[in-house]
Amino acid sequence: MKSNKAERDEFLKHIGEKLKDIRVKRGLSQEALAQEAGFSRSYYTEIELGKRNISIVNLYKLSKCIRVSLKELLNFDITEAK
Predict the structure, then answer these.
(1) How would CATH label the architecture of 4-76?
(2) The dihedral of CA 33, 36, 22, 4: what is its sign?
(3) How confident is the model at residue 82 (pLDDT cuts 50, 70, 90)?
(4) Could you report the per-residue pLDDT of 1-60, keeping only the tens digit for each?
(5) CA distance 71 to 22
(6) Which letter does DSSP use for residue 52 in this model?
(7) How far from the centroid of its chain's Cα atoms is residue 30's Cα?
(8) Selection from 57, 51, 64 nearest residue 15 by Cα
(9) By three-state DSSP, how is residue 27 classified?
(10) Contact 47/78 with Cβ under 8 angstroms?
(11) SS (H, E, C) 46-58
């Protein structure tokens, strides 16, 4: 069984990967998306890398910017996370 930290790290990495995949499909740069959401590029980069424990409010801001529901961003089976 994984530790809480390992599970948290997997979860954050998965969220970051989903955000990156959608951002790239939308043709947005990290800087453009970060600016639209009101974040610095470095903060957003850390989110994509799974190094930042993003708040639900900031995740909501990003979901609005990339036009995807929070449900879609959070819809995954943690056992399938890389």
Answers:
(1) Orthogonal Bundle (1.10)
(2) positive
(3) very low
(4) 678 999 899 999 999 999 999 999 999 999 999 999 999 999 999 999 999 999 999 999
(5) 14
(6) S
(7) 12
(8) 51
(9) coil
(10) no
(11) HHHCCCCCCCHHH
Task: Specify burial of residue 48 (Cβ count, 10 A radius: 0-12, 13-18, 19+).
Answer: buried
Backbone angles phi, psi at 23, to 5 degrees: -60, -45
Phi-psi group of 29: left, alpha or beta (phi > 0 → left; psi -120 to 50 → alpha; rest → beta): beta
pLDDT recorded at residue 53:
95
- The tokens for 61 are 């801001």
Contact 62, 37 (CB under 8 A): yes
**Angle, CA of 36, 82 and 54, to the nearest 5°:** 35
Supply the pLDDT for residue 19: 96
**Predicted local confidence at residue 23, as pLDDT:** 96
